[in-house]
TrEMBL record:
Family: Belongs to the peptidase S9C family.
Pfam (any one): Peptidase_S9
Coiled-coil portions: none
Complex and partners: Homotetramer.
Protein's recorded name: Acylamino-acid-releasing enzyme
InterPro entries assigned: 6-blade_b-propeller_TolB-like (IPR011042), AARE_N (IPR045550), AB_hydrolase_fold (IPR029058), Peptidase_S9_cat (IPR001375)
Natural source organism: Ptilonorhynchus violaceus (Satin bowerbird)
Amino acid sequence: VPQVQPRVEELSELYRELSQHPGLSNACLGPDLTTQYGGKYCSLYTEWSQRDLARAENIKFCRQYLIFHDGASIVYSGPAGTCSEIKGELLSRESPSGMLKAVLRKVPGKEKEKEKQFLEVWDQNRKVKSIDLTALDKHGSVYDDDQFGCLAWSHSETHLLYVAEKKRPKAESFFQSKAPELGTSDEDTGHPKREDAPVKGEQFVYHEDWGETLTTCSVPVLCVMDIEGNSISVLEGIPEHLSPGQAFWSPEDTGVVFVGWWHEPFRLGLRHCTNRRSALFYVDLTGGRCELLSEDTKAVWSPRLSPDGCRIVYLENDVLGPHQQCCRLRMYDWYTKHTSTVLEAVPRQAWGAFPGIYCGALPGMCWAADSRRILLDTAQRSQQDVFVVDTATGATTSLTADAPQGSWSVLTIDRDLLVARFSTPSCPPMLKVAVLPAAGHEAQAQWICLQDVPPVPGISWGIRTLQPPPEQEHPQYRGLDFDAILMRPSEGSTAQKPPLVVMPHGGPHSIFTAGWMLYPAALCRAGFAVLLVNYRGSLGFGQDSVVSLPGNVGTQDVRDVQLCVERVLQEETLDASRVALVGGSHGGFLSCHLIGQFPDTYRACVVRNPVVNIASMVTTTDIPDWCLTEIGLPYTPDALPDPAQWTEMLHKSPIRYVDRVRAPVLLMLGEDDRRVPPKQGLEYYRALKARGIPTRLLWYPGNNHALAGIEAEADGFMNMALWLLKHLQ
């Protein structure tokens, strides 16, 4: 291994180069226009994000394209102009006609003023409205997250709907002294109190929030802007035990449909948790009556109204259990009030059949023009594919079965023009478009690439399937297999026999799909082979695989990863004397287990916000139910600490094997992590230090569980790569 200093420069240049590949986040199709020769065309507006290392921030930019089509196929498509940066936009939404656009914008305050939020309306020529929401003071900050947040036009294009934090009364000390103001009124004068008069004794009241990444979300309210009247109103009639979000206007604009999450007896973390009790509701704008539209004992999300205004599809899970799993697709008929199940959960994935729905959300626009078919993307083993679903029959067809293998995501569909994102482990995201064929002919979809992104040279990859040996089979779910994606350098000095970096994913109920991932690609270019393991319990393999893992964490998932490592070392030309682990969250849990249970295999380990001791995590995390579910026990909010449960948690935790660890460990912790609080990593750090194991801890302020801040991500990569180079010499 060369001297470290040249490697530092080489690695930083490599990271700088690969981190510049932008991610594609949004797409919106403009209205159809007709040329003087009768041809139809429309504009395609796309939003991208890119890491700016010099500014240490994620920037957003937009790019426009023109698409000429004849309704059946795309005749010509290409870019219109260059990219331009988008500043301060938190949310934006085109109106149904495409003639107007609403923008929620943040603007820095002057001098010591706090940041302001403005709601703007643009027509095709200029900005026609700009409302200072902060000055109006009707509510707190507007939500711009993808859990509650929305910005929805009424069908008449006269009103806008959004979600904001409920206005909280100002609080002051019991002993606040101030000169009496002329004309003020209080209890002593007998006059009514001003509405915004400060409340005494409320200064230090604890306000629950919705956990990881949603720490500023406590009590959401639905708000309506009357564009003509320049007025903002907060909707009445939503029950106090519900937190509303993901809202849109009902047909005829008579009211609002929303998802309501129960927050009693207390809030649990909501990010990546599609198992929280919630239901679909309708609130009438005139009478304020709130009506339940779905069952109230399930977890629901992603409601989408059909173009004809007759049907709402949404996703549904059971409450509690695994945080993410194979979900049901349900449909509510607005006029008959009948709810049907379009697609059930799929027990086992089988090629040629629908794999099940594992997505965190349906595309914002997912309906075909016929108001019968919807488009969605979902994991199918270790790849992600696009499917069209006939909501009347439940029939499904893959639109990407004959397209290149990788990771496909639907961005939008409008008037049957379909926009998608595609990437592979060696090819950064690219933009693809197609016309949705007529019903029954969907498999004939022809994908057109709007901008060619050349593959990153020097990376080869493939997916392999593994079958656990009979003694490691789950007694109830026999015959389950799993996958791994192996990336290896195809050029450079280590290409013949590279060292191996093993990466199990977090979750545990998530998935590595064969798409672009910065860290694995950069490690591969730096000369390492990278093994991404989708052990049993991962999404995309059927519900049986998901439910096979709870009760078996620390054994089944650990053995799957180890089996995979031993198999690739046998079958591939890799350096078996130089194997390391890299993992975050549950992937960190597995990495710490593996260096303890199989100390002879691994020479180094890097973990990011790892779960180390489930027993000490249960009382500090925003998801205590996870700790019980994954060790195989039921969760109830009123459960008290139980010694037998704590023993089981400790027994399944990697801290149990710390005495056997020999590999040097690099820990990376986010100071603001609410999911796996940094005390977990500190506990492991102290245990390793006490045993004389080489260890280093990186502490990232202002970062949460994902460690996705631009500085933390870049610094984390450099430290990880240098740690691996140093200890795999």
